[in-house]
Amino acid sequence: MLTIDSVRKAYATRSGELEVLRDVSLSVARGSSVSIMGPSGCGKSTLLNIIATLDEPTSGTVTIDGCNPFELDEQALARFRNDRVGFVFQEHHLLPQCSVLENILIPTLAHAGSTGTIDRARELADRVGLTDRLDHRPAELSGGERQRVAIARALVNKPVLLVADEPTGNLDGKTADTVADLLIEVHHEVDAAMIVVTHSTTLAERFDTRFKLCEGHLTKR
Amino acid sequence: MHRRTLQRQSLIYHGRTNVAVVLGVAVGAAALTGALVVGDSMRGSLRETAIGRLGGVDQALVSNRFVQESLAATIAKESHQDVCPAIMVNGSIAHADTGARANRINALGVDERFWRLSARDKAFDVGEERPRSVVINQPLADELHADVGDDVLLRFGKAGAISTETLLGRRDDTTATLRLAVRAVIPAEDIGAFSLSPRHVLPLNAYVPLATLQRSLDRRDRVNAMFVACKGGDTPSAGSCGSLQDVLDKNLTLDDVGLRLRVNDKLGYIALESEGMLVEPAIERAAREAAGDAGFDVSGVQSYLANRISADGNNTSGIPFSTVAAIDPEGPTARAMITIAGDKAEALQPGEIILNQWAADDLRAGPGDRITLEYYVTGALGRLETQRQTFMLRTVVGLTGAAADPGFVPEYTGVTDTDNLADWDPPFPMQLSAIRDKDERYWDEYKTTPKAFITLVDGKRLWAEQADRFGTLTSIRLRPTDPSVKPSGAASDFATALTQLWHPSELDLTFDPVRQRLLDAGAGTTDFGVLFVSFSFFLIGSAAMLVALLFRLGVERRAGEIGLLLATGFSPRTVSRLLLGEGLVLATVGSVLGVACSLGYAWLMLAGLRSWWSAAVNAPFLRMHASSLSLGVGFASGVLVALASIAWSIRGLTRLSPTSLLAGVVASGRERVGQSSKRKWLTPTLMFGGFFLAGALALWPVFSDSAPAAGAFFGSGAAMLTACLAMFARRLSGDRAGVIHRAGSGALVRLGMRNARRRVNRSVMTASLFASATFLIAALEAFHVDPAASSTDRFSGTGGFTYYAESSVPLVYDLNTPAGREALNIDPVSASALDDVLVLPLRLRTGDDSSCLNLYRPTKPRIAGATDALIERGGFQFGGTMAETDAERTNPWLLLRRTFSDGTIPVIGDESAVLWQLHLGLGKDLEIEDEHGETVRLRFVALLKGSMLQDELVVSETDFSRLFPSISGYSFFLVETPDEPSDAASFLESELAAFGFDTGSSRSRLAAYLAVQNTYLATFQTLGGFGLILGTIGLAAVLLRNVWERRGELALLRALGFSRRAIGGVVLAENLVLLLVGLAAGSLSAMLAIAPHIATRASSIPWSSLGLTLAGVLALGVSAAMIAVRSALRSPLLPSLRAE
């Protein structure tokens, strides 16, 4: 359901053009999972941002569910992303002024007619083990708990594509395992395509397909 | 969960930043609303004051005529209104014991009916009325240091019915003095400050018993004023008072207008005569029309006095002091004369004369002989000139019938009522030794019977120099067309017809809706609301900028939140709306708070206007008035301005990529990386275009008089500022920075300057703030005018006149001649004080002050009439003229002699008064009413620049006399002395105390006007200073933000071994660069904008004050920078490193 074809991404700098991604192609089916590894600064997050429609490729095409999102106007693109993509960030980025339940519901506020509902949010909170913490603010949660909230938030609109950028990067070993388990479980439950960028070989090996990004090229491992 | 929930929680969570934003909005809204409230307060206070001084009076009639006092009662009865008769005269008053004096006071002759006009709850305690007593108001009591029981000397003009500028007008008895005891001192409120003119300065009023004043003026049972309090509440319009004017018109009699009918049944005529000796043109017109309607034939008579009648070639001394009558040869009078020798009298032609038999015999003259008349004519300033005219003797008539009629000459006290010729008491010199016995015998038998007759054409030519002003005829003769009708039976018919046909408005007898007029004037000339919004502009702008800045900083700190919302599918527009929604709440709360605080701001401004800014307005009566409209407008404007600022502050933020925002990056890549393609062409365009435009606008006023100075000033300054800041932006965005190496303070400074390039927009904005503040404050400082620097040369604001003077009683003699001084009883010996002194008189129609010191809108401006002497002399500085010839360009005063085909009258006014008080300009017209109630247009042919003549508009004396014919003499004077100070001023005041002669220093007068401008500038600067302080707070916030963003870097420098002092130097250098660039750009722009000003007045630019101001601006900026430095040095090392 996700196809990336010959995607290239370059940035203009004072010293000239800096090419981060070179001729990257990838296909991910619904329900399958992909991990991408690579050294720091190789462009993993850049590729993930493009996949999640947060950034536009310099050239090449991206097709999600048969649609090239970058051909949509701004409003339609935002709607597309809201409906189809769930993103889990390394820094979780919870809104400090909102409770756990409210943070999960944030994506449902973007457009009228979102698929997410408060019941679904409660359900997801329960799924991630935070039923008793619904009214708590992020400052009152541990790092792992915050990341679980972020995972629930990413799933509230039943996305077809779930992307995670270093979801366990800031967590200790045990917590990281817990979060990783949760991620893999819920991915199967929602039958979404999942793409994860990680430094952790252990985590990477838990996914169906593994890729390596090096010097802008994506190769299957 | 709703979006509103998210907004509410965000607002609460980020409360600290939001409180700062709210406070910023509150400041702006308070300043804006407060300024509008100042406007409300000024208008309200002016109205209150003006109307308060009227008591219950709605309409008033004040005339130069004295009508019967009983007319007031008649009008009251028929109109069912309260009508109070009174006398109003100008005068001066002195304490009988101490000599303390007050000039230009209002003396009112009133009785108990006047005190009933008071609108106070408690009536004034004016004590028991005694004939020789006076009630004075508190300001007058303070001026005289007088109290109840003290004696005062009240002096006022005692103008007779005959104008002092005609031959028979008495010039030697024009003042009266009353010694009065002060019986009460009343507060200056309500009718205690009674005034019909809109002027905020408290009047000096003396209330004298009506009968006492009537006696002193020889006007028993006569009044020249009526005040009407309309029944039925506050009804300011004429309609609500009923038709007062109609009732007045209906009840006016000939006696009220100074006319009388003399019936001569024997000779078959009625003579219409005036107590003013000459029948006014308006009366003559009405009389001729009434005569036609009532069945009368009309002919005019003009009587005059010949000093001598002589026959050329005959050895006789001539006949002294004879009346001569100019008649219509075709009229019945001439036809009725019996000819002794020569042709019939009706054959008389211009250039010919008829003598009666007595005169012909005395001169031994016969038809064909040449007869010369010698007579006086009046010149300017009381000068008498002897003129002669020779005629051919056409006819000799017998001393019988129509020719033997003393009725040709109206009654004249001191002449017609004397028994002997030698007892005559005319107001001109008479050589009594020339009177012969036969002359006395003629007088005994024939009294004023004319000895000679000429045509009316000749009479008008010789003796009617001011025909349009006073009229030409001494009587109008009416004969019933039906011979069977006796004149005595038809006189009342004629009188009735005349009263129905004359126009009281032409006779200066109209009711003035004074309450409405003062209400209109109370709107003021300057909208103080708009003025204070302008003054507060910088404060409001700074508040708006602060709001934008603080909101932006707050939003930048929420970059991650915004990135998350975008990442989860919120569109940029939706996110913007969410933020604007928060902004709207903050703007609304801030505006509500601001409106509440605006009353405090307004109170502060009003306190300033009453005290340290009193030189501009002098309004101790100012009280707070706040209209709901102003509060509403202020609130709405506060919300709009704040919302606009907030919208501007978040522009572009939601356009950043979600990933950048999530990473905490809030500047666009283009801004961070270097010059965008857009900036590549925009910046040079702004730079070069700005320099070019700045130069062009600065030079424009130098080459063109039509260039609007204010526009050129602000335009060139703004263009220069833009160019300088564009140049700075270009420099910051460039790539040419070299490698920083070699340890030392130089490297630290360069490192600091390099940091300014990180956030180009923010750096330019910081510099802009100081640049614009510097520009405004520096440029305005240069416009302060130093009154002491005003020279006394002819082409300065004083016109070379050291003093100016005004008299309560007009003078008719020339102060520059020994004869004039003698006529004014000035001791010739001590008059040496007037050697080399030139006193130029001007006629004056008192009215509303047009100067910037008058807060009221002048509805009836003061108008002065300039003599030929002043016009020829020239002087003063002009801001613009309609000169077309070289002579006019050299001396623009000559423009007062220009004639316009549409009848418009040329006038000269001060530029400031014309522009700001009358809201007119060069070439524009002002409509006024002349003495006859006709609307006349005055056209501004020249504008004086920075002159001492702001109070009055100046026309030529000729035009003045046409506009206001009844105003005789001169009341305004410009005095040129060789030295300053001079004894001449005090000498004139002392010698002419009876006339209420009051001198003042021209420099002081000019200084008072210039103080208005300086005070307004000071107000602008003060409020601008508040804005600068606010801007500095914003700047400190920006600088703190800069330091916070770079806390990791600064921690790194410390970890690498940089001393605190070195790090402080880096931060200070960065901020000082912005400060100094802003200061330099602002100063340079200011210098360019005021360059034309500097070129003409280099010595008067207050350079030291300017330098101090700029130093103050720099100090403020450095203090903000030091806050940032302190913050940088206090950050803990390790946490800062970790944050990086």
Write a concise synopsis of the structure shown.
Chain A is α/β, with parallel strands linked by helices and 221 residues long. Chain A is built from seven helices and nine strands. In chain A, the strands form two sheets. Chain A has a six-stranded mixed sheet with strand order 5-6-7-3-8-9. Chain A has a three-stranded antiparallel sheet with strand order 2-1-4, covered by helices on one side.
Descriptors:
heterodimer, A: 221 residues, alpha/beta, 6-stranded mixed beta sheet, 7 helices, 9 strands, 32% helix, B: 1140 residues, alpha+beta, 6-stranded mixed barrel
Description:
The complex is a heterodimer of chains A (221) and B (1140). By secondary structure, chain A is an alpha/beta fold. Chain A has helices at 44-51, 74-84, 100-105, 118-127, 143-155, 173-190, 201-204; strands at 2-13, 16-28, 33-37, 59-64, 85-88, 161-165, 193-197, 209-214, 217-220. In chain A, the strands form two sheets. Chain A has a six-stranded mixed beta sheet with strand order 5-6-7-3-8-9. Chain A has a three-stranded antiparallel beta sheet with strand order 2-1-4, covered by helices on one side. Chain B is built from 39 helices and 28 strands. In chain B, the strands form four sheets. Chain B has a six-stranded mixed beta barrel with strand order 2-3-7-4-6-5. A six-stranded mixed barrel of chain B has the order 11-12-17-14-16-15. The two termini of chain B are 35 Å apart. The A-B interface holds A 11-14, 45, 49, 52, 54-55, 74-75, 78-83, 85, 87, 89, 91, 93, 95-98, 101-102, 105-111, 118, 153, 157 and B 1-3, 5-6, 9-10, 12-14, 560-561, 563-574, 657-659, 662, 669, 673-674, 735.
